[in-house]
Design brief:
Layout lengths: L1 H14 L5 H13 L3 H9 L6 H32 L5 H33 L1 H25 L18
Helix pairs in contact: 1-2, 1-6, 4-5, 5-6
Length: 165
């Protein structure tokens, strides 16, 4: 059921007029966990009171950059959706190169903030935060992947039984 909700939510947001990426992400997270991202982070991280203000200040800066990259991701998905019916080799390669560049930018941004979080709160807390970030990002990516068609649409019913698991 969660997969269906995620797919429907993402399709509505990704293809229907470019809603802001952070709103899309929020919808997916709320559908999955029933909470906003900051609530999940707060519950999971259990930040000591003396570090609370510093943590949330750094978190807000991180989220601002993450959301900007999320907007780029939404533009790329819309570009794919608009080109899907007429996708040729050149356009497919262009889209894939943009996706790889975006993935690289996201990794570099995470590295920058991991170093900042580790310096300020210790490596264990920083790793804990980014482990949660990766988990949440993977949920969002799965929602996206399940809601957009494969090039030449993969027919799962034709796959050998061993690969369906």
């Amino acid at each position: 059921m969660k997969k269906v909700v995620l797919a429907v939510l993402f399709v509505m947001f990704a293809f229907a007029g470019m809603a802001q990426s952070n709103k899309d992400d929020l919808q997916i997270l709320q559908a999955t966990f029933g909470k906003e991202k900051a609530e999940l982070v707060k519950a999971y991280m259990k930040i000591p009171a003396e570090q609370d203000a510093a943590f949330w200040s750094l978190y807000d800066k991180y989220e601002e950059e993450r959301r900007a990259l999320g907007k780029e991701k939404a533009v790329l998905i819309e570009e794919y959706a608009n080109a899907y019916e007429t996708l040729d080799d050149k356009k497919a390669a262009d889209l894939m190169n943009k996706k790889l560049k975006l993935t690289d930018s996201y990794t570099k941004m995470q590295k920058k903030y991991f170093d900042s979080f580790a310096k300020q709160f210790g490596g264990r807390q920083a790793a804990k935060f980014f482990q949660l970030e990766d988990y949440l990002e993977n949920i969002i990516r799965l929602g996206i992947q399940e809601s957009i068609p494969f090039i030449d649409e993969l027919d799962k019913s034709k796959l050998p039984e061993a690969t369906k698991q």
